[in-house]
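step: validate -> pass
step: tokenize input -> pass
step: predict -> running
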Amino acid sequence: MREGTCGVKPDMSVNIAGVELKNPVMTASGTFGSGMEYSEFVDLNHLGAVVTKGVANKPWEGNPTPRVAEVYGGMLNAIGLQNPGIDVFIERDLAFLKQFDTKVIVNVCGHTEEEYLEVVERLADETVDMLEINVSCPNVKQGAIQFGQDPKCLTDITAKIKKAARQPVIMKLTPNVTDIAEMARAAEAGGADAISLINTITGMKIDIEKRSFVLANKTGGLSGPAIKPVAVRMVWQAAQAVKIPIIGMGGIASAEDAVEFILAGASAVAVGAMNFHDPCLTQKVVDGMEQYLLRHNIQTVRELTGAVQ
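step: predict -> pass
step: emit ->
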């Protein structure tokens, strides 16, 4: 990597709720597993953080197949948060991640408050840097989304999780609401240390020849470049409403996309669906953002947060 005009590389570090990340690039939950498969393509040591796939108090089978479909500008998924449960996760996934010099953020899912809290309490003494609470999955028929669409429910569950958690808590917000700023304020009111947004937008695809739904679940979550303008807008609106850090995501396919989210008010970004298109994308985003800072003679990436005019 070439150096800047004064022979000094730009400072890529960011601080989220007291946790220092070497750079603002992380993975979006559900698109990177726990890094095992992707470690063949990307040196996880170079990422700011790895965000794991959602983990529940016990194994979830997820939704019936077919549950993934390609659409113009992205993909639909109705996986339904399939996961092996907290016991296997701790023994296998966390054990794997301990060997890398990167922050570990565990995405927590559940149907009820009790299920969320059980996982949060199990992780209290584990080597985990932050928790991301998934109250925004559109493909779980009970729980999850109801917390993310009702401001009072969101504040209440955030407060209960904060009381039980030993790590900083990130609440992951759904875009499937009328007012994202209201939901951001509700999470902040409950004591969230940070928020992440956006999760997927509910969509549908129909096979016109078979006259049937492409997904067994009928609806799925839309992700990929098609949702990026919506995501950038919502990050900007949330940034105007709260003082806590924001992790922006939704259709990031390049370093330029990542910079756009940070200018809108995000302190960090997560690369999601496009990992399936290019398994090396996270590393490319890190390198590209550093080059952007060099080109514009910017000393720290933190200067860019909310710098849009």
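step: describe -> Residues 14-61+81-202+222-304 form a domain with the TIM Barrel fold (CATH 3.20.20.70).
step: cleanup -> pass
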